[in-house]
Design goal:
Blueprint: E1 11-17, H1 24-32, E2 39-44, H2 51-59, E3 66-70, H3 77-89, E4 95-98, H4 109-118, E5 124-128, E6 136-137, H5 141-158, E7 170-173, H6 174-179, H7 190-202, E8 207-211, E9 214-215, H8 226-244
Parallel strand pairs: 1-2, 1-4, 2-3, 5-8, 6-9
Antiparallel strand pairs: 4-7, 5-7
Helix pairs in contact: 5-8, 7-8
Length: 248
């Protein structure tokens, strides 16, 4: 039985965008070409390159499955996902996915993340670059080392056993998102990804890592910045201190 036969709202893929006009049509079509009929929500931060206009064109073709939320300005990855999470919870989705627009996350792996939650007992499934070694393509060594040792640092501070703590390719079961006070989420960059995992870990949810190959974008520009890295470094310490004082 197709898993959408019972509930057409089983899986929503949230894709935040800012200036992704070069990727958006291809990524949407790639998701809709999968065997499992996922829905897609684009959360666009008023992209100057008119990404939202392209999504509106695609909605004429995918009216039942493609949704768009437009925000007034660029407000950060974390707030875009929180916006999407609230949208998903209001519409009865059982599984909610995070995915980038730039094909660094292979859409085919959405099905593997879904299977880990629906069939494998995971409450949160992470598309992990590091659970079976280092599976990253086209990144400079400096960035690979930064990302890898960021996860080592997170494990040391938080006690989580997650190999890829900054991963942004994730499937959440509905109950995980319902258990987290989304209005208390503080961080917006890499630290947001760590914070969400740490809150789920602190509530003793079953977290599984699914090995994936991460390929750096070939179109568009990375949103990485020094402030995002700084937020992640100090944000982890903040999260741990809050947990120690039962204030997470």
């Amino acid at each position: 039985m197709n898993f959408f036969t019972v509930n057409m709202n089983c899986g929503l893929v949230i894709i935040p965008t800012y200036n992704e006009i070069e990727n958006i049509e291809s990524i949407v079509r790639a998701v809709f070409s999968l065997n499992k009929p996922f829905h897609v929500l684009i959360v666009d931060d008023n992209s100057p390159d008119k990404t939202a206009d392209k999504v509106k064109e695609l909605q004429k073709e995918f009216a039942a499955n493609l949704f768009l939320e437009q925000r007034e300005k660029k407000a950060g990855l974390g707030t875009a996902y929180v916006h999407g999470f609230k949208w998903a919870l209001a519409r009865n989705y059982e599984f909610v996915f995070e995915m980038d627009a730039d094909f660094s996350h292979n859409p085919i792996d959405l099905e593997r993340l879904y299977d880990a939650c629906h069939f494998g007992g995971a409450d949160l499934a992470i598309g992990s670059r590091y659970v079976t070694g280092v599976n990253v393509v086209n990144w400079p060594l400096s960035r690979v080392l930064l990302s890898y040792f960021a996860s080592v640092y997170v494990r040391m501070i938080t006690g989580m056993k997650i190999m890829d703590a900054t991963a942004g390719f994730i499937c959440y079961s509905r109950k995980v998102l319902e258990s987290i006070n989304l209005d208390k989420i503080k961080f917006i960059g890499y630290a947001f990804q760590i914070e969400m995992k740490y809150r789920a870990f602190s509530k003793h949810f079953n977290i599984q890592e699914v090995p994936v190959i991460f390929t750096d974008r070939t179109k568009g520009q990375s949103k990485m910045s020094g402030s995002i890295i700084k937020e992640a470094i100090f944000g982890v310490l903040t999260l741990r201190i809050k947990k120690m004082f039962n204030n997470l």
